[in-house]
Design goal:
three-stranded parallel β-sheet; single chain; 3 helices; 75 residues; alpha/beta
């Protein structure tokens, strides 16, 4: 049982998340990950995955591509 996170929770929210959930869903935002063609910025997603792995939580990723309007990078 988990929730979607875009950043690791901090302070009391960290402890509350770990008490309530055993998983994390990471959903890449293509426009944020690759704001410029061929220049990827994975840092924010990496921080969530690293935090979750360190907390012993299951990590799922997806969807990898969201084809709805507004989800594409500007390039």
């Amino acid at each position: 049982f988990g929730a979607r996170l875009t950043a690791p929770p901090e302070g009391e929210a960290d402890a509350a998340y770990r008490a309530a959930f055993n998983a994390v869903r990471v959903v890449p935002d293509w426009a944020a990950v690759e704001p410029d063609e061929a220049r990827c910025h994975w840092g924010p997603l990496d921080r969530v995955v690293d935090w979750a792995a360190g907390a012993g939580l299951h990590v799922t990723v997806g969807p990898l591509a969201d084809l709805t309007a507004g989800s594409f990078p500007p390039w």
